[in-house]
Every structure is written in structure tokens, then in C-alpha cells.
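On to my pick:
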Amino acid sequence: MRSAKRPESHPIRDGMAQALRGAGGIFTESSEAVARAVTAAIHEAGMAGDAAANRIAEVIKSAVGGIDSTEEDSAAAIKGICVGVLRGTRESGAAASRTIVRTSGTVIRETLRRGGDVAHATRGLVRGAVHGAKELGLDASEAASSAASAALDAAEESGAAAAERVRAAVEDTVDGFRVILRRKDRQQGHP
């Protein structure tokens, strides 16, 4: 529900801004805010007969919109967004892996739309995928590669420069994981 005083207000965007200002740690605050918002979005989608994926994408976009901070803070917030979506959906296995891919694509598209730094966003997504995979008992290396590959796919939609920034972001290890970028067309069996 929007505030009468601030028509541009949005609960998750405001929650992210509060997380960035809060004393509880950016990752913790953002992951908790997003998890609550995703859980609510899934419930609302079920009540309205809507697709939960669309509602979750709106939560992600709003969360990215609430990030207006230093580069390292934004990477921690995006890590929190990724983990928060996983916690909020309560998915596991292959469904959680698909959620990591969808989340990564949405974050990168929204980051580019807002003129943000896709390199920091990509590193945040990979860190979030690793963290979430460990919580869910998934292969963290596979999750990291899936997140980075989805980020690259989304960046390529915008152009070669954005794609190169994503590649550069994962050139070295991220949190001790070597990321293997996979091309979407190869995954689908196309040459």
C-alpha cells in the first residue's frame, strides 16, 4: 500500500533503503526484507489467481530500486536479494536452481535499466547463489555458474559492453568459487 505522503513509496523499496541505513548488516536486513516480501507476493498471487513468478519479479525490481548506496553495499544488498528470494519461495532442488536463474536475470535487467553497476550486481548474485545453495544443500559451484550465466544472458540483451562487464566481474574466483559461464543457446542444444 502506498503512503499518502510519498506517492513514490513502495514497501520493499523502502525496506531496502532502510536495510542500507540500518545497523543490522546489509545482507541480513535485505535478505529478511525480501524473503518477507516474496512470501507475501506468493500468497497474494495465490489469492488472486496470478502467476507467482510475475509477483516475485516485481519484488525483485522494487528491491533493486531501493539500492542507492556504495558499490560494496549494493553487492551485499543484491546478495541479500538473491538469498531472500530463495528463502521466500521455500523451493529446493531444481526449482531453487531455476529461481536463482530467474532472479539473476531480473536483477541484471533492472540494474541496467536503472544505470547501476552490473559488475557489482553480478558478484552479489554469485555470492547470494553460493550462500543460498549452501543453505539448501545444493552444489554451490553449480549455483554460482548458473547465476553468472543468467547474468551474462541478461546483460547480452543490453549489449556487448554490459556483457563484457559481467564477464570481467567473474573472471577471478568469487568467494572461492571459479565461475564457469555457460551460453544459453548451448544449454538449449543449439549450435
Remarks:
- The chain has one domain: 11-187.
- Residues 11-187 form one domain.
